[in-house]
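Practice problem. Given the sequence and the SMILES for nicotinamide-adenine-dinucleotide, write out the predicted structure.
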Amino acid sequence: NIPTVTINRLCIYHRCLEKIIEVEGKEESIFISSSKIAALTGINSAQIRKDLAYFGEFGKRGIGYPVINLVKELENILGLDRKWSVIIAGAGNLGKALVRYKGFQKRGFLIKGIFDKDPLKIGKKIGHISIYDVKELEKFIRDKNIDIGVLVVPAEFAQEVADKMVAGGIKAILNFAPLRLTLPPEVKIHNVDLSFEFEGLTYYLNLC
Amino acid sequence: NIPTVTINRLCIYHRCLEKIIEVEGKEESIFISSSKIAALTGINSAQIRKDLAYFGEFGKRGIGYPVINLVKELENILGLDRKWSVIIAGAGNLGKALVRYKGFQKRGFLIKGIFDKDPLKIGKKIGHISIYDVKELEKFIRDKNIDIGVLVVPAEFAQEVADKMVAGGIKAILNFAPLRLTLPPEVKIHNVDLSFEFEGLTYYLNLC
Ligand SMILES: NC(=O)c1ccc[n+]([C@@H]2O[C@H](COP(=O)([O-])OP(=O)(O)OC[C@H]3O[C@@H](n4cnc5c(N)ncnc54)[C@H](O)[C@@H]3O)[C@@H](O)[C@H]2O)c1
Ligand SMILES: NC(=O)c1ccc[n+]([C@@H]2O[C@H](COP(=O)([O-])OP(=O)(O)OC[C@H]3O[C@@H](n4cnc5c(N)ncnc54)[C@H](O)[C@@H]3O)[C@@H](O)[C@H]2O)c1
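Answer key:
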């Protein structure tokens, strides 16, 4: 019963701490105060303490939170310390780029198969991962108990492919196609729009 | 001298209001309170009022903020109400997917050219945009006064291509290559890691 917005903030705290470890190294002795996290993330420190308190007592009064330990706790809460099985629907430009990107595997997201409707692509491989006929998507998800489906097909086919994922029992969908999908409430959805990545930049350009 | 974290929060408020307009329509008569924005974004309402107050008095006490008006104000502050010129370095899988995605143009990010070192790609087009030799990158940025460079080349070439962008006078870089670039302080950088898009999803999967 934790609010979604709290979970989204935990992801922000986790990334913030990861950046600290990148710079300072994996020192057991590094502590961070909620006011320092507040300065780095912009979320007010009382909110940070309240969010973390949902899950346990991680900090020591007067000293702060041990960075290495808190990262591990957050990874456990967010499910980032385990492996998730993923399929990619659409072996086009974006699909190919995602399959080859090592960042997913590093974070525990293992791509198990790619699906497409183009006969010229079916039967081929990208890296060591096979491209299957999208007709087999539902059965593959069920048989291999796939957790997450990534949707990188053209918008006009996205709903029909998403329906196949749902029929196979997918638990969550990462959607790149520019449309709002209609999904049953038990399937978690996250829509990606890369144009949002420009937003922080243009404020500063506006100042020049 | 507005803190970066305030700007990042403004982007969050902007997206939140956009979602409201998507659902409720562009009604002049819709108002929203800071506590409603707080419930939708997870940022505490006093922080929201403080952030917006940096830029002006947008709300009416007791009634809240007029949604349409506040979106326009935020777009003006964030530089989203004007056009920005963009080049893409790397005409590979990710580069091609970004060039063809209509979401960028819709938000005012106009791709002016693509650059690559592969002789088989130079001289071709993606959509109506030409692929140029990366050797011409610096001159193109200077002559056409390009604002933003998107870096979608393999990691081992990313720093050298970023240096060319900087030499041409680029103002900001959106980096997809998995490495930390060394850039002069006046060039704004934003690193994208799509594996972060999975993070909110796995919390819920962990509960199942
Ligand atoms: N959200 C973003 O920021 C963003 C950025 C870039 C692209 N996109 C979107 O991502 C999607 C993919 O883009 P792309 O550049 O890879 O396109 P693409 O045309 O290169 O690839 C699409 C692939 O989907 C396959 N396909 C078509 N119908 C199918 C079906 N019914 N079942 C299975 N496969 C099917 C095609 O055969 C092709 O291989 C598009 O919807 C595009 O708008 C989104
Ligand atoms: N951050 C993320 O979430 C994410 C996701 C997917 C891919 N990536 C990264 O994006 C980058 C591009 O991925 P891709 O799948 O498009 O790779 P790709 O191999 O398909 O494309 C790379 C392109 O860069 C060109 N190139 C190589 N050296 C160059 C140079 N010196 N100057 C100009 N062009 C040059 C190549 O000719 C090729 O066209 C990679 O670094 C990859 O790791 C990141």
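Check your answer against the key. The pocket of nicotinamide-adenine-dinucleotide (ligand 2) is lined by residues A 97-98, 100-101, 103; B 89-95, 115-118, 121, 134, 152-155, 157, 161, 176-178, 192-194 (CB under 6 Å).
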